[in-house]
Specification:
Two copies of one chain form a homodimer. Helices cover about 35% and strands about 20% of the residues of chain A. By secondary structure, chain A is α/β, with parallel strands linked by helices. Chain A has two domains: about 280 residues, Zn peptidases (Aminopeptidase), CATH 3.40.630; about 150 residues, 2-Layer Sandwich (Alpha-Beta Plaits), CATH 3.30.70.360. In chain A, the strands form six sheets. Chain A has a six-stranded mixed beta sheet with strand order 1-2-6-3-7-18, with helices on both faces. The first copy, chain A, has a four-stranded antiparallel beta sheet with strand order 12-14-10-15, covered by helices on one side. The longest helix of chain A has 19 residues. Chain A is globular, with a radius of gyration of 23 Å. The two termini of chain A are about 25 Å apart. The mean pLDDT of chain A is about 95. Chains A and B meet through strand 11, helix 6, helix 8, helix 9 and strand 12 of A and strand 11, helix 6, helix 8, helix 9 and strand 12 of B.
């Protein structure tokens, strides 16, 4: 019988082809018109998990998108149980956002798979599936496996929290592992130990009852696009900090040791420039790029729209304006509280000449993972064996809303066993995933399961 | 033989049906995909002018949309010649902008025709056509008639100025009459004697080279949507005035007499509230609603767009943002100069963390018409006879870019013989045109041609 690592290598091409099929399903969770595709991706993944050797595979309906659950308990009651979490839904992607190729037709170029979801998170979660398959196909895994792969991570795991609470017994495990983070470079393995939380909001501003002729009324009506701009402009101070009163109140100060650790291996201005293509950094005065991304909360405009914005000209005075606004939050900040602070401040900023409303769309709690658990040590060894180098610990700027739930509801230590690269372009155009990271990911996951069984 | 007025009454239903057919053609000049419809509207109008009895009718191609030209010189060389100008193109209209019915399928409700272009300007220019027909069908007009109806008024008459310069001889006339303005109420006839000019611009702001993950980079990149908002917010002072240095330099101060005249019959706050549906007026401190609209220049946001603005959430940090910005200008202001002032100020406001560019899309000069010409007296009498009341003189907030060209290139006195109502909702949703104003318009135009022949 082959070893799991040999099995994975022998089947690497098939695994890649399967990943391509997985990616081709445009499972965009936020778009109502993609609901059938989201379901199709869940069913595709469930079928693949069955083929991989899982004993019990389910597509669990929710009032939103389904959860895929798979279990293999063949290691027996004395062996540890690992809960693997990932998501099969993806962010929206449109050629108009400057993709070089169809976001849902993966192509290989220079060792990367270019497609929406390639890195976030289809490629990473599928590396876990293929690692499990390699173990199950070569004599069985040394640990019991529970896979939970959801379809709503990109909409803040709307229904997963309830599922976790209602199925605490079924989801019992010794450790939770999640492959949905990135490292700055393929040459240096890195483990993300901190994630930001999220409060995603929508700001509406209303002016006149309907669009008006900008000549017949212009100058006498507070233009809601202008009013929205005035409100948005007032949300930051000139020093780059967020001006919402109380916004930073719950942020724990960074110790000099933490700051030193963050900055030692942090993103250089050169790497930042290469990855963003922007001219020069911006942000909260007194903090480095790495601190701004990993250790400080933000308030970001994700989009806005008002009036006429097509080619040509329309001399309209618009009736309304909209902005999507989200805050990334750090440890000890409460998303609901932050929403309330922003809401109250915007109410205060809104002049009597327009009306405004800030709606909360969804939230996710910030999370830390303990770097001193046996599971984390198993992860360190797994990376070491595959990379020949010890992983560093880094903070991530992104959010995985369910991590806090796994920690608090299930009392599980969480390990973020990421296989992405920070330059993968998740959420943007031309998202990509390194083929080598995919295969190293499979090997690292196999290694992790082996290490954890001995810890 | 019937009189022209009797002819118009006898054919009122047919005229209305023809107007409906004219309106059904979605001749939106700013949308490239509507070019064939714009052409179709030109051809429809040319055919109608031929049927109306014009001797020479042409659809004149330009490098943009065609100009419809029609001539009837049967009054002979000793009779005056009237140049009638109007436009057959319309503003964009979309059900999504809160129309209660299809903007290109006119419906009658409470005495109004609801449709895009009903008032601006198809209904008004068609009243002129039907007045000419009534005269030509009942023994001929007492004046020579030259109709020039363009398809680019809503895009600032891009090619009409050249046409006017190149055809100065052919367009020779004694007076120019334009039906493309409104009066506050059907009970009180009003003649608009002042129009604002226009500088229509597009502001682009670029940040990162492509959309980014708002978690992975948020807080370290100057968000272009935010930067655009910051720039827009800085374009007005808290007192409602435009903060662009030099913006008001060329504005002639209003004399106390002018202010008194403007405000005597000006829009009341109650009428403003009814027409706009907004909560309370806004604008330049120290000026009344009517002065802000008719006598002061403005800077308006006609639209803006950035990032994700659909239903749901996308945690994206957008790469770019766009705003459509237009300035309405008053007498003595130069649109090109205003563009340069705004451009330079925005360049100065733009921080080094983003790039911006302000592009000029088109311009129109502000215009005054002399209220002491024989043509204006003929207009006053024409309104008096149809309304039983003397018209008042008002200032319009809108722009008819070609008026200044007619005055300077052709040396013509211009009369704005408007049949619209200020509450018609031009450029907005549910644009409408009063059926009674349409028929009164035909009668007033007949009367005007008769009066001017005797002046």
């Amino acid at each position: 019988m082959s070893t799991p690592h040999a099995y994975a290598r022998q089947h690497s091409e098939r695994s890649l082809n399967q990943l391509f099929d997985f990616i081709r399903i445009p499972s965009v969770s936020t778009l109502p018109e993609r609901a059938a595709d989201v379901r199709r991706a869940a069913e595709w993944l469930a079928a693949n998990l069955s083929q991989a050797g899982f004993e019990r595979v389910e597509v669990v309906p929710t009032s939103g998108h389904p959860i895929v659950y798979a279990e293999w308990m063949g290691a027996g009651p004395s062996a540890p149980t690992v809960l693997v979490y990932g998501h099969y839904d993806v962010q929206p992607a449109d050629m108009a956002d400057c993709w070089d190729s169809n976001p849902f037709e993966p192509i290989l170029r220079d060792g990367f798979i270019y497609a929406r979801g390639a890195s976030d998170d289809k490629g990473q979660v599928f590396a876990q599936v293929k690692a499990a398959e390699a173990l199950l196909a070569t004599g069985g895994a040394p640990v019991n496996l529970k896979f939970i792969v959801e379809g709503e991570e990109e909409v803040s795991s709307l229904h997963l929290g309830d599922f976790v609470r209602q199925n605490a017994e079924r989801l019992k495990a010794d450790v939770c592992v999640i492959s949905d983070t990135g490292m700055p470079s393929i040459d240096q393995p890195a483990i993300c130990y901190s994630l930001r939380g999220l409060a995603y909001m929508e700001l509406h501003v209303w002016g006149p009852a309907h669009d008006l002729h900008s000549g017949s009324y212009g100058g006498s009506v507070h233009n809601p696009a202008q009013a929205l701009a005035e409100i948005i402009a007032a949300l930051h101070k000139p020093d780059g900090s967020v001006s919402v009163p109380g916004f930073y109140d719950d942020v724990l100060p960074l110790s000099p040791e933490e700051r030193a650790a963050i900055n030692q291996r942090g993103m250089t201005e050169e790497a930042w420039r290469r990855e963003t293509g922007a001219d020069q950094p911006w942000g909260e005065a007194g903090y480095t790029i790495e601190e701004r991304i990993g250790a400080r909360p933000t308030l970001e405009i994700n989009g806005m729209v008002s009036g006429f914005y097509g080619d040509g000209a329309k001399t309209v005075l618009p009736a309304r304006a909209l902005a999507k606004i989200s805050c990334r939050l750090v440890a000890n900040q409460n998303p609901q509280r932050i929403y309330e602070l922003v809401r109250d401040y915007i109410a205060q900023l809104t002049p009597p000449t327009v009306r405004s409303e800030l709606r909360l769309l969804h939230t996710g709690a910030p999370a830390y993972t303990d770097i001193n658990t046996p599971a984390m040590r198993a992860a360190v060894v797994a990376y070491q064996k595959q990379w020949g180098a010890s992983p560093i610990f880094i903070r991530g700027g992104g959010s995985i809303p369910i991590v806090a739930d796994f920690q608090t509801q299930l009392g599980l230590p969480v390990v973020l066993l990421g296989f992405g690269l920070t330059g993968d372009g998740a959420h943007g155009p031309n998202e990509r995933f390194s083929v080598e990271m995919f295969h190293r990911g499979i090997a690292t996951a196999i290694q992790f399961f082996q290490e954890i069984s001995q810890s």
